[in-house]
Write a structure and sequence with these properties.
alpha+beta, six-stranded antiparallel β-sheet, 14% strand, four-stranded mixed β-sheet
Length: 383
């Protein structure tokens, strides 16, 4: 499938690497899509959805994408800014008055997008706190999570809190009074033709769903009121956990990243302005480390990388360090990831978009180093 813009031999090397890794059981399977200049050059499906090898991965397999879910809220937040509903400099407490009490009440939309609110990162509002809706998440964050530093002084990746508040800000400023599920569907997924992307596993997605095997990686459970199991949230038909509850395919996510690669437009659907996309892919966290990945780096014995966060996106940035965005990608390469499973990115300089989703979660370090190699192999195939 590689065009003249990419080396067929090097993309074949990438496929062989993924086959070796899945054959070894390191992870069970993967689906990968790569596009150059808007043309798909790799559409790969390798391995299985499960350790027992009962369900082959296909190019239309549906994956629970975990924190890639945040990317949808990030983009709609940037869109709301363009619509004048609020600004990057607007305090969250001006939109959501319940976000009171110093110093968290000083945090702006900018701080939420850059993970610099001053609130420590937390996987759940409180131990065992049940969350399967935006409302439950928002109420828990308001009640239990408080600022420990002034906004802007520390970069602490928020697994759930920031996007619970950003989702609530989108809902409260929506002129039509819609639910967050309808906002994302009608303003993003439907315009981009993302028919296999939803919060929850809808009936038309069920047979293709890769049920996530957490393999002890996720530090919390995610139960559902409608579906059995410690991680029922990810197999239930519906949720509104906008920070982690979406499911999608590589095909749908390619539409999303191609919109970003094309400066905010895809097949006639204008989601963002070119100026906003370019602003979003700049590093806005300076030299601050990301506290979460500082711990990963120290534990695994390599240099602590800078956080390199843009307006809701992870950015490659300058320098040489361990990063899943790769060492050969250009500095403005930007994207998002999902815990132990997925990665999306766009390299504006090389005009490449990448989507990778996998089965069988890896720990943070293994996932980072896996995607660093894969990302570098993609760039090395560019001619």
């Amino acid at each position: 499938m590689a065009s003249q813009s990419m080396s067929k031999e090097r993309l074949a090397d990438l496929e062989e690497l993924v086959r070796q890794e899945t054959d070894s059981g390191w992870y069970y399977g993967a689906a990968i899509k790569v596009a150059r200049h808007g043309e798909t050059v790799l559409d790969l499906a390798v391995g299985y959805a499960d350790a027992e090898k009962t369900q082959p991965i296909a190019t239309d397999s549906v994956f629970s994408v975990f924190s890639i879910s945040k990317a949808f809220i990030n983009v709609l937040t940037l869109r709301a800014i363009e619509q004048g509903r609020f600004a990057l400099t607007t305090r969250m407490s001006d939109i959501v008055p319940e976000w009171s009490g110093a110093p968290r009440d000083k945090a702006t939309i900018f701080h939420f997008l850059t993970h610099t609110t001053g609130v420590p990162g937390a996987w759940e509002p409180a131990p065992g706190y049940f969350v399967e809706t935006l409302q439950q998440g928002f109420e828990g964050v308001i009640k239990y999570l408080h600022g420990t530093t002034e906004p802007g002084e520390r970069c602490d990746y928020a697994p759930m809190a920031n996007h619970a508040l950003l989702g609530e800000a989108l809902r409260r400023t929506d002129a039509k009074g819609r639910s967050i599920e309808d906002i994302v569907l009608e303003d993003l997924w439907e315009p981009l033709g993302m028919s296999d992307t939803r919060y929850g596993i809808k009936p038309h997605m069920r047979d293709r769903h890769v049920v996530p095997d957490m393999r002890g990686i996720i530090p919390i459970t995610s139960p559902s009121s409608t579906t059995e199991g410690d991680y029922g949230l990810y197999t239930a038909e519906s949720n509104s956990v906008v920070w982690a509850g979406a499911a999608s395919t590589t095909g749908d996510l390619q539409r999303f990243v191609e919109m970003l690669r094309n400066d905010g437009e895809y097949e006639g659907a204008r989601i963002l302005s070119p100026r906003m996309v370019r602003l979003a892919r700049r590093v806005w966290t300076g030299d601050l480390p990301n506290e979460l990945y500082q711990t990963v780096a120290l534990r695994n014995g390599y240099a602590v990388p800078p956080a390199n966060i843009g307006l809701g996106f992870n950015v490659r940035g300058e320098g040489m360090y361990v990063t899943q965005l790769g060492t050969l990608t250009s500095p403005e390469t930007f994207g998002n990831y999902g815990a132990g499973t997925g990665l999306i990115w766009v390299d504006p300089e090389h005009d490449i978009s990448f989507v990778g989703l996998s089965a069988g979660l890896l720990d943070q370090n293994d996932n980072i180093t896996r995607y660093q190699r894969i990302s570098d192999m993609v760039i090395a195939a560019a001619l």
